[in-house]
Design a protein that fits this description.
12 helices, UDP-N-acetylmuramoyl-L-alanine:D-glutamate ligase, single chain, 4-stranded mixed sheet, 8-stranded mixed sheet, globular, alpha/beta, 21% strand
Length: 330
C-alpha cells in the first residue's frame, strides 16, 4: 500500500468517487477555426467525469458527483456519463442555475478553450457535496484544481476534502490541472500547492508546475518541492511520467501516437493510473495503464474516446521494458 490510508483491493477493485464540474462542449465539426466554422458538434467535457468514465471503461466502480442545471444540457451530460457505466445517482439538479458551457477553438499550435461557466450549477458545490452517499462510501476520492477555481464555496469543498485532520478514508487523489483561463498563477499557486501537498496521490504536469511554482528543471525538483504526497506523479507530456514514493523513483515513457486533440489526455492518464492502483497493481503497471488510457483521449477530438482493443492493451501492460519503449501506436 502507498500509505496506511490507501484502500486494500483484496475484496475487489476499490470504488472511486470523482467530484467536479462537467460542461457541454462545442467543437468545430471539421477541425476549423471558430472564425471559419459553420458547423459545431455538441459533446460534454469535464476533468472529473472524464476520469469517472475511463475508470468505468476499465471495470472500476466509479461515480461522478456534481451539480447540473435543470436543462437539456444537464440531461445530456447525465445520460452520456451514465452510458459508460459510471454512477450519476448523486448528481444534484439545480433548478435555478444553468449547466456550464465550453467552446474549443483548434489553433495551429494548440487548442484554445473558452469557458462560459460563471454562476453555473456546479459552481454552487460546497463542502456539503462531500456528504453525498457516493463520496462517503467510496474508497478513493478524486478531484482537481479546477474545482478550487470555480467559486468560493468550491474552493472550500476542495480544502475540506484535503484538510490536514481528515479521517483516513476515503484516500484522496488530486490532479493539479491548472487552468490559466480561470485564474492567474499568483492566485492559483499557493492554493494548488496547499491542496497538492495534502493528497495521498498527486498528479502534476512539469509544465504547469513551472507556471505555478517554477523554475523547476525536472521531475526531481518538483518532488523536492512537493514532498508531502505518499505518491507524486509528475507528467512530462509526450516524454513520459515519473512516480515518486518515499522509497523510490520510477520513470515510464509515454507511447507514441498520432494526436488528434490533446485536451483530456491528462484526465485519461489519471484514470488509468487510478485503475491500476484500485486493483492493487504495481506503480509501474499503473503508469503503463495511465499511458495506454491516455492514447484513447489523444486519438479523438473529444475528451472521451474508446480504449485500445483488449488484446493490445493487455499485451502492452505485460510487455518487457524494451517492447514497451519501442511501442508506436498510431
Amino acid at each position: 500500500m502507498l500509505s496506511p490510508a490507501w484502500p486494500d483491493p483484496s475484496n475487489g477493485p476499490a470504488g472511486v468517487a470523482c467530484v467536479g464540474e462537467t460542461m457541454v462542449s462545442l467543437v468545430s465539426a471539421h477541425g476549423q477555426l471558430l472564425d471559419d466554422a459553420t458547423e459545431l458538434q455538441l459533446d460534454i467535457a469535464g476533468a472529473e467525469s472524464n476520469v469517472a468514465m475511463y475508470l468505468a471503461d476499465q471495470g472500476i466502480p466509479a461515480s461522478w458527483v456534481s451539480r447540473v442545471g435543470d436543462d437539456p444540457f444537464g440531461r445530456r451530460i447525465l445520460t452520456r456519463i451514465a452510458a459508460t457505466g459510471a454512477d450519476v445517482s448523486d448528481v444534484e439538479v439545480d433548478t435555478g442555475r444553468p449547466t456550464g458551457l465550453m467552446v474549443k477553438d483548434p489553433q495551429v499550435e494548440s487548442t484554445r478553450v473558452y469557458y462560459y461557466r460563471g454562476g453555473s450549477a456546479a459552481s454552487a458545490m460546497s463542502p456539503g457535496t462531500l456528504n453525498r452517499p457516493a463520496v462517503r462510501e467510496a474508497s478513493i476520492l478524486h478531484l482537481t484544481g479546477i474545482t478550487a477555481a470555480l467559486s468560493t464555496s468550491c474552493a472550500e469543498l476542495a480544502r475540506a476534502a484535503l484538510r490536514p485532520d481528515r479521517v483516513p478514508s476515503p484516500s484522496v487523489s488530486f490532479d493539479v490541472n491548472y487552468r490559466p483561463t480561470l485564474w492567474a498563477p499568483d492566485d492559483a499557486g499557493p492554493v494548488l500547492y496547499e491542496l497538492a501537498s495534502r493528497a495521498d496521490v498527486t498528479f502534476v504536469g512539469l509544465d504547469e508546475a513551472n507556471r505555478l511554482w517554477g523554475p523547476l528543471p525536472d521531475a526531481a525538483a518538483v518532488r523536492e518541492l512537493l514532498s508531502g504526497p505518499p505518491l507524486l506523479i509528475v507528467k512530462d507530456g509526450p516524454v513520459g511520467a515519473t512516480a515518486f514514493t518515499a522509497e523510490s523513483e520510477l520513470f515510464v515513457p509515454a507511447l507514441r501516437v498520432d494526436v488528434a486533440e490533446p485536451v483530456g489526455a491528462g484526465d485519461a492518464f489519471a484514470a488509468g493510473v487510478l485503475a491500476g492502483l484500485a486493483r492493487g497493481q504495481t506503480i509501474s503497471t499503473a503508469l503503463r495503464r495511465g499511458h495506454l488510457t491516455a492514447v484513447a483521449a489523444l486519438r479523438v477530438r473529444h475528451d472521451h474516446g474508446p480504449l485500445l482493443p483488449d488484446d493490445v492493451f493487455d499485451r502492452l501492460i505485460h510487455a518487457d521494458a524494451a517492447s514497451w519503449e519501442a511501442a508506436a501506436l498510431c
